[in-house]
Amino acid sequence: MGDSGTHSVPASMLKVHVAVGLGFLLGGVLGQTVPPLQSALSFEVASIKPVGQIGLEDIKAGRQPRVSVDKAIAHFAYTSLMELVWHAYTISSNRIVGGPPWLWAGEPERFDVVAKIPDGVPTQQVPEMLRTLLAERFHLAAHYEKREIPAYALTLGREGARLKEAPTELNTPEGEESREIQGKNGRVRYEFDSVTMQKFASLLSRYTDSPVADQTGLKGRYQAYYEIDPMAIAYDGLTRITPHPDGARIDGMAGPRDAINSSLKELGLKLESRRLPADVLVIDHIERTPTPN
Fold first, then answer.
1. Global pTM?
2. What does the domain layout of the chain look like in residue ranges?
């Protein structure tokens, strides 16, 4: 998926990062350069409309979180304030701390945000403009701290990686874009033609309770994939990984933990629990209600 066009999130993924598949939004691997806290860029004009809470019945009726961005408009529909923070700082929620309890509510208040992108400003700079919007309208104040946090290390399996190197002609930004394929047993499969292991680890972080760091030692670009069980994640929240030992039988009907693990096992990779240093975003202040449009 590119940086333009409309991207919808399946109804079953309400509690999953609504930025799944949006290349210019969610990132944030351990050790990756963090974005600045503030930005000089701003939207030309922005409207923020409260839309209340939504549940599964609302989603089935079409009121679901979604993001669409083109050269003129950025639209965050049915989005929570925490999700806006994710998008603005290109960081996953497992690297955000602090803030008031309501910010972490399981059924948060949601907003419809429509913002005009200034002429000539590329869509890749939408997160920067969103940071300005949050500071101006929700009075967000935050800072970074280096902390040792629970994490997962992406490492090689006992028999080594079983990855195919990406053809040279696919080593382009488009090669890192995922193809979403409906898998078996309700799973969703994301395939990549050319992805680094650092980027691959960052993508896995979207679905796990702790960040994933690349410690494979692999420096090239590879053809890779992973599968998730979106319905299980929607009901259970982010996945707490209990890594399988090498050679363990993996049940194809298992939950989100095993969907991720089984994908990695087929690639000759695995996740190991560690404590690793990372930059975390600390929320010092944020207001629940935005200033008027």
1. 0.65
2. 5-146+280-285, 148-278
